[in-house]
Design brief:
Length: about 300
């Protein structure tokens, strides 16, 4: 639908999404990348759709404003349920509630809970939409999107499609509501608008978002890669870069050399399978990667 419609404005600037299994280093890589891009004239936002406040932790920030300034041109925003609900409120919540409450006696918070239970992907949908709106706004030249561990990321990607499917059925049901013409029409209009929004969000993910996959050279992580790439390609989302994190480079103890030789097998597999991708290795560091100075070390390797 809007996939071929060049009239649709999907925003400007660059958006990079970091994805991967739990604990592989997505937030670390996202933070270092955001640091790299932020410069005078290049306002950069690192945004997290993970419930845990890991970006503020890695940047050692105590400011809980949203967005919070890390340094001159670098901002972080950790989206929570509250922001997403606000978004839903602003776009559809009150409107849909208005229609529903004309024939069902229900309080607004209860209604929102009901909607999120029948459409479990609703908050994910609005996360995608939130980021799309941000890019349309043009306030940031670069947006770095740090996602929750992989299971949730994929659910997030599937949501617009699931929602579109739900909305395909919905008019048939809603049009049978025993209402006067006047109240029936608005809800169908709202649903149509919602459906368009959902399709635009899928296009936005396809056209505007660059995906970076983060992994580690370990059995489970490597096994999961194939499935993830397949799922992403089902939505025509292409990963451009693969970061292999935690690679042992220093084999000065028996412990480390055993670990390194085990990793070699997995590294070989990754290079063979994903030779079409740009692959970057990040070494395993002996210290915690927190604060701007440490992140600069990561930045140097990612952008050498
Ligand atoms: N190359 C590395 N060397 C040493 N420690 C690392 C390295 N990369 C990440 N870490 C550490 O591993 C932990 C997990 O990293 P990070 O939070 O970036 O992962 P994540 O993929 O975002 O996790 P989650 O899935 O929970 O969001 C952090 O404590 C981080 O400092
Ligand atoms: Mg994280």
């Amino acid at each position: 639908m809007s996939g071929t419609d060049s009239q649709v404005d999907r925003g400007s600037g660059s958006i990079t999404m970091f994805t991967g299994k739990g604990g592989v280093g997505k937030t670390t890589c996202a933070a270092a990348t955001a640091l790299h891009h932020s410069s005078p004239g290049n306002r950069t936002l690192a945004i997290s759709t993970d419930a845990t406040p890991s970006l503020s932790h890695i940047f050692e920030l105590t400011d809980d404003r949203k967005p919070a300034r890390v340094r001159d041109e670098l901002f972080i925003n950790e989206l929570g349920e509250r922001e997403v609900k606000e978004m839903w409120d602003k776009k559809f919540g009150r409107e849909v509630y208005g229609v529903f409450s004309s024939f069902i006696s229900i309080k607004y918070p209860e209604f929102v809970e009901f909607m999120t239970s029948v459409l479990p992907g609703l908050s994910d949908e609005f996360m995608v939409d939130y980021i799309r709106e941000l890019s349309l706004h043009g306030e940031y030249e670069t947006i770095i999107w740090d996602t929750a561990p992989l299971g949730q990321t994929l659910a997030l990607l599937e949501t617009p499609a699931l929602l579109a499917e739900h909305l395909r059925m919905a008019p048939r049901i809603y049009s049978r509501l025993k209402l006067g013409q006047t109240s029936r029409e608005p809800i169908l209009d709202i649903l149509r608008r919602w459906e368009n929004l959902s399709a635009e969000n899928i296009d936005f993910l396809k056209d505007r978002v660059k995906f970076v996959m983060v992994t580690i050279p370990e059995a489970l992580a490597v096994e999961q890669l194939d499935g993830t790439f397949r799922a992403l390609s089902e939505y025509s989302l292409r990963v451009k870069q693969l970061i292999i994190n935690n690679v042992v480079k220093n084999e000065d103890s028996e412990f480390m050399s055993t670990k390194a030789s085990q990793q070699k097998e997995y590294l070989k597999t990754i290079y063979e399978k994903y030779s079409d991708l740009e692959i970057i290795e990040l070494p395993m560091f002996p210290y915690e990667l927190k604060g701007v100075d440490r992140l600069r070390e990561i930045e140097k390797i990612l952008f050498q």
